[in-house]
Amino acid sequence: MSRRRSNPLARWHLSRISAIRPPWGGVAWLGVLALALSGCHHRPVLNALQKVEKRGVLRVITRNNPTTYYQGPAGPEGPEYDLVHRFAAELGVKLRLIVPDSFNEILPMIAVGKADLAAAGLTVTPRRERYVRFTPPYQIVTAQVVYRVGHPRPRDVQGLIGGRLMVVAGSSYIERLKALKMRYPRLKWEATTDFSSEDLLGLVSEQEINYTIADSNAVALDRRFYPELRVAFNFSKPSGLAWAFPRTRDESLYRVAAAFIERMQKSGVLAQILERYYGHIASLGYVGTKRFMQDIKTRLPTYRKLFEEAGTKTGIDWKLLAAIGYQESHWDPHAVSPTGVRGLMMLTLDTADHIGVDNRVNPEQSILGGARYFKQIEKKIPTRIPQPVRTWMALAAYNLGFGHLEDTRILTQERGGNPDSWVDVKRNLPLLSQKRWYRKTRNGYARGMEAAHYVSNIRTYFDILTRVESKQPPAPALPPVRVESVASGLP
């Protein structure tokens, strides 16, 4: 039988206890020691979830870009922000966002517990799973190689050799590039900590570099602002984006988060969040985007003040009014449709009479009249429907008529959908042009698919105007910031 070795640290503690033994009797001393040890033994140890609840703050590492978190006109926005904001609300705590200097810092920070979780558009990879624990994915994306139109299109990895390829340091693309270099020894790339994926897409558009690699959601968003960008080929198979947690034995917070993600998927809330940020991005093509960017410079200055004044009078963002005006007439005050609507905001004669417009081709009257009409429609939308869904439904009604919007919402409910969800209503709008469905409605036939495209186009025009007006690069290089917000009043 082997003899148990004594613990040197334990011997040191015993010697210290002996050295500080008080002058009173041994029995009394043993009683005090037993009481102290008993107190230490029963001291509660908080798990990760309890620590967050006690702290009252959920600390989240994220990134500052269009696919995760950014400061919008009304405050913090972004797909990751909306989702993690809801999670903090369910926990009943505040949300603290931590934005590191570079993407390369995110995984090391979460691996050593610098925050409770990372919600930063992180792709799940086997290598990363060795260091962090991922939730079920909330979005599926594909890494894409991007180049600029007018330059030779690389058809595969071989085509990248000889060009300047730059990617974000620490990204999942680096792992695959290193593996590919075994097959293509001449393949070279630059890994940067100074630029984000959005910055690199801008550099490709400006012809500073030849290629970059970015996730498909980021590429789709930024092609609205850089219409010259093209996808050369997919660099990866579809992969999941997920939240990351420290890989420790304590899974209490992770399990709650994983259940939350699955619940958001089943309830349809996740689909609504993704619709808000991605549901309209494929509506404009290269020619349409180029023309709009040009018209912002040449046509908008003539009418901008009128849009701003109408916005002030009605409480509507002037950029939304400008987006409606562009969708209606391309900012042409003399536009006329085959159905008789005319003017910059393309008002019908009945609508013009209703809102007091006597000259539809007068830009000032048309813009203010259109703004007032839109406001009237928006007020009819049930107050329980939050923004920005109220605006999207009001836009559909502006195009279709309020009665047709209500018909669609009724059809949506009858078919098991949520009449207050734009995701579900948009899906059912095309039914208004199908006899088997519109014959059941009060207002009959309507071009519902056209209304869905109408809303998508205006959302895209609004996003572009907002970007242009910000007078900032697509992905501003911000210093590390902390943003605190009480997780209530959720979008």
Notes on the structure:
With 491 residues, this protein is an alpha/beta fold. It folds into 3 domains: 49-139 and 241-278, D-Maltodextrin-Binding Protein, domain 2, CATH 3.40.190.10; 143-236, D-Maltodextrin-Binding Protein, domain 2, CATH 3.40.190; 286-470, Lysozyme. The chain is 47% helix and 13% strand. The protein contains 20 helices and 14 strands. It has helices spanning 8-19, 26-41, 48-55, 79-91, 106-111, 172-181, 197-205, 216-222, 252-267, 269-278, 286-298, 300-314, 318-329, 349-355, 363-380, 389-400, 402-414, 422-428, 435-438, 448-470; strands at residues 57-61, 70-72, 75-77, 94-98, 117-123, 132-134, 139-141, 143-148, 165-168, 190-192, 211-215, 229-234, 239-246, 482-485. Strands 1, 4, 5, 6, 7, 13 and 14 form a 7-stranded mixed sheet that branches. The chain has a 5-stranded mixed sheet with strand order 10-9-11-8-12. It has a two-stranded antiparallel ribbon with strand order 2-3. Strand 2 and strand 3 form a beta hairpin. Helix 12 (300-314) packs across helix 13, helix 13 crosses helix 20 (448-470) and helix 15 (363-380) packs across helix 16 (389-400). The chain is globular and about 70 Å long. The protein starts with 7 loop residues before the first helix and ends in a 6-residue tail after the last strand. 39% of the residues are buried.
